[in-house]
Design goal:
Elements: E1 10-14, H1 22-33, E2 42-45, H2 64-71, H3 82-94, H4 110-119, H5 121-136, H6 138-172, E3 179-184, H7 186-196, E4 209-213, H8 217-222, E5 241-246, E6 266-271, H9 288-299
Parallel strand pairs: 1-2, 1-3, 3-4, 4-5, 5-6
Helix pairs in contact: 3-5, 6-7
Length: about 325
């Protein structure tokens, strides 16, 4: 890592959606201002998926009855409430006595209940309730899934273009002060792909620290889904790397035991938002511990350390 500079550095932020929504970036600015080692940093919010397709209605691809409901104004997109409403539908259905007639005053039929358990009736019931709840909210649920998938589809088909946008943002950052590349979710995957690939050979790009939060890069590595790195492939991530994960974030993964190539210096840092999923996937931005660890790593930069030697896998 390059020596820390008295001049405040730059944090280049890659949102998981690739869309530079202002709220996460502003939250990062506010949190960094509270951390002495990061106060004064400039946060650059990169629209790395600006070329992704526009948001479109999913209704034409759904069965006819959903189109008729949409034409009638029901149920239609509901601003992301589909998942919550589907959950409420499911809880309501689960509260209904089952089997029918088994409510208060009904004589329990233990033998029949055991037989149903053995034959899988309970499993079918649960799956049926889940399916019914999802069917009733299919338009908003599919719409939300489509919004989430647009950046994934774009990155899978035009990853080199996305990484070029990120590289240009890094070139625009002042090169005489530290640069942190912070990727959330799919943004973390794009960051790992950039730093481990041939795009990183270009001149004029400085990155002192890679930070990923809620990233799927370890999972994709094991499945051979990264652009350049994978089991049996040469290459590494050539800068110090902090990987933040939360057990309640089902889209986060650990990296230390996955990226073991010489020259890759990665440290997993667990966070504990306590939030349910999917809120846990966005909780990193308000976690003061994340910025404290980030600031500590920037502060202890050691220019004399040889990170390509036999002890490169040991965190300094």
């Amino acid at each position: 890592m390059s020596p820390a500079s008295p001049t405040a550095g730059t944090l280049v932020f890659l949102q998981g959606t690739g869309d530079p929504g202002p709220v996460p970036a502003q939250t990062i600015r506010e949190q960094m201002a509270l951390e002495p080692g990061l106060a004064g940093y400039t946060v650059r919010n990169v629209a790395w998926a600006a070329g992704a397709g526009p948001a479109v209605s999913v209704v034409p691809a759904l069965p006819p009855r959903y189109r008729e409901d949409a034409d009638a104004g029901l149920p239609g997109p509901d601003g992301g409430r589909g998942l919550a409403l589907a959950g409420m539908d499911l809880l309501s259905a689960a509260a209904t006595p089952w089997p029918p007639g088994s409510g208060a005053g009904a004589a329990p039929d233990v033998a029949a209940a055991e037989e149903r358990m053995v034959t899988g009736s309970v499993q079918r019931l649960v799956l049926g309730l889940v399916t019914d709840a999802a069917v009733n909210r299919r338009v908003p649920l599919t719409g939300a899934a489509s919004d989430f998938s647009r950046s994934i589809i774009y990155y899978l088909s035009r990853g080199a273009e996305a990484r070029s946008v990120i590289a240009n943002a890094l070139r625009m950052a002042p090169q005489d002060a530290p640069v942190i590349l912070f990727g959330h979710s799919l943004g973390g995957v794009a960051a790992v792909d950039l730093l481990s690939g041939p795009e990183w050979d270009a001149d004029g790009m400085r990155v002192d620290l890679l930070v990923t939060a809620g990233s799927q890069s370890p999972w994709l590595y094991l499945m051979g889904g990264l652009a350049h790195l994978g089991p049996g492939k040469p290459g590494n991530v050539p800068v110090p790397w902090l990987n933040f994960w939360d057990e309640r974030d089902l889209l986060s993964f650990c990296a230390e035991d996955v990226f073991s190539a010489p020259g890759t210096l990665v440290r997993d840092v667990e966070t504990a938002s306590g939030d349910p999923f999917p809120a846990s996937h966005s909780a990193y931005f308000t976690d003061s511990a994340l910025y404290r660890v980030m600031g500590e790593e920037v502060a202890r930069a050691d220019p004399a350390r040889d990170r390509s030697g036999p002890d490169a896998g040991v965190w300094c």
